[in-house]
UniProtKB/TrEMBL annotation:
Gene3D superfamilies: 1.10.8.60, Homeodomain-like (1.10.10.60), P-loop containing nucleotide triphosphate hydrolases (3.40.50.300), PAS domain (3.30.450.20). PANTHER family: SIGMA L-DEPENDENT TRANSCRIPTIONAL REGULATOR YPLP-RELATED (PTHR32071:SF119), TRANSCRIPTIONAL REGULATORY PROTEIN (PTHR32071). SUPFAM superfamilies: Homeodomain-like, P-loop containing nucleoside triphosphate hydrolases, PYP-like sensor domain (PAS domain). This is Sigma 54-interacting transcriptional regulator.
């Protein structure tokens, strides 16, 4: 494996979704730990295998030809059974300009016994209020709209409601609305019959059917194209739908939960979200507070994540007092996901069994808030004393990666942003931060 890809592997580990890197020869180059856990296959077995059964006539092959990122729902073979995945593929370039394919593969549905067992952790006032609301939501049937910034735990909250509801024995099906373009939405949600459109070689159940007697979680509902919103509303109101190309009306007993990081009420005012669907979905709105407003949860979250990451190092990990203070002083724009990723990286960088300040690196963002909680409000009792040191390679790595794209595209930001699959605005911020302007 080329040296630069080897370095990428440590970045893969900060990815909480199953993630795979495929080479231009259509063989698997790397997978992360989340992938091993989701599929029950060790990386030693998977690395070096062909990318998929239809190798050569597959989505991976197409990406190497077109360089176009893709998204959608695909069926793949797991160790025990076939699994439905929400897939996103991106072209990746290493520092030497070599092209790879990175694919995130999140499981679309989880049976009761697969649903997150580790649960939600927290003990702050805002967290306990949230938990009470989630318990109330689980006890009734009303549609729930989970609101909150990215990484605050909306998906985990939806799982919590599912697990504590009367639908707990059914499936928990996750539909990521960001992958449904105009064409995909109807066939993915309601299914299609054989021959319904070009490429429909066989009939397929939709997510509504898969979630029968369970819960359908529509994540990022604010991203659903307006043209598709009426179709969703119709199905929610009648509880009935038809597969694309089908003549039979189907019914499914589904609890629907939605989440968004957007202000849907504003979107309604701007005509980007249907008012009738907004009222239908937001009967019980639940706001998930950002981490900066519940910093009292940081010590217990740190302990929780270090318990998960310790075994990766074969060690019981703790954090030094200075390290914990550094975490508490940060604003956490990426919320709990950012904290988790930060600790994952710190686990890798930490030389001993105690995480030190120099092991902790933040992704900096412009306009970041620091939070209003005073240090003395946070219980530091559990933190042992720490010591010092230095280092940071993550930003250098990012800078050299972007530098190679600047060279490749002669500074054309549109093309660079497209290749990195980020907005031009985000690229602009990164360039400023990394002094690449
Ligand atoms: N209270 C919590 N206790 C433990 N882990 C948590 C908690 N809240 C969130 N997490 C973890 O943080 C990560 C992000 O959570 P989640 O995916 O639910 O956020 P989200 O709000 O749905 O994010 P996005 O809007 O970007 O999809 C996950 O790994 C989740 O397990």
């Amino acid at each position: 494996m080329p040296q630069s890809v080897f370095k990428l592997e440590s970045l893969l580990e900060t990815h909480e979704q199953p993630f795979m890197v495929i080479g231009a020869d259509l063989h698997v180059l790397a997978v992360n730990q989340a992938w091993e856990t989701a599929f029950g296959i060790a990386r030693e077995v998977q690395v070096g295998r062909p990318c998929c059964e239809q190798q050569g006539a597959c989505r991976h092959q197409r990406l190497f030809q077109t360089l176009e990122p893709y998204g959608g729902i695909f069926e793949v073979d797991g160790r025990k059974d076939k699994k439905l995945l929400n897939v996103r593929g991106y072209p990746l370039l290493d520092a030497d300009g070599r092209l790879y394919l990175g694919e995130s593969q999140s499981l679309l549905h989880k049976r009761g016994d697969e649903v997150h067992q580790s649960g939600m952790v927290g003990k702050s006032e805002p967290f306990l209020r949230l938990k009470t609301q989630l318990q109330q939501a689980a006890a009734i049937q009303a549609p729930v709209l989970l609101l909150g910034e990215t990484g605050t735990g909306k998906e985990l909250a939806a799982e919590f409601i599912h697990r504590h509801s009367q639908h707990a024995q059914g499936e928990f099906v996750i539909a990521d609305c960001t992958v449904f373009g105009e064409d995909l939405f109807e066939s993915e949600l309601f299914g299609h019959e054989k021959g319904a459109f070009t490429g429909a070689a066989s009939g397929k159940k939709g997510l509504f059917e898969l979630a029968d007697n369970g819960t359908l979680f529509l994540d990022e509902i604010g991203e659903l194209p307006v043209s598709q919103q009426a179709k969703l509303l119709r199905a929610l109101e009648s509880g009935q739908f038809r597969r694309v190309g089908g003549t039979v009306t189907l019914k499914a007993n589904v609890r629907v939960l939605c989440a968004t990081h957007r202000n849907l009420a504003d979107m309604v005012r701007q005509g980007r979200f249907r008012e009738d669907l907004f009222y239908r979905l937001s009967v019980f709105p639940i706001e998930i507070p950002p981490l900066r407003e519940r910093k009292q949860d940081i010590p217990i979250l740190v302990e929780h994540f270090l318990k998960q990451f310790g075994p990766l190092k074969g060690q019981h990990l703790t954090i030094g007092r200075e390290g914990l203070i550094k975490l508490i002083q940060h604003g956490w724009p990426g919320n709990i996901r950012e904290l988790k990723n930060c600790l994952h990286l710190a686990t890798g960088l930490c030389a001993g069994a105690i995480i030190q300040p120099q092991d902790i690196h933040f992704m900096r963002m412009i306009g970041e808030q620091t939070g209003s909680l005073a240090m003395e409000d946070v219980d530091l009792q559990q933190a042992p004393a720490g010591n010092g040191g230095n280092m940071s390679t993550l930003e250098q790595y990012e800078a050299s990666f972007i530098g190679s794209l600047i060279k490749k595209y002669q500074g054309n930001r549109k093309l660079i942003a497209a290749e990195m699959n980020i907005s031009e605005r985000t690229l602009y911020r990164k360039l400023n931060r990394l002094n690449l302007n």
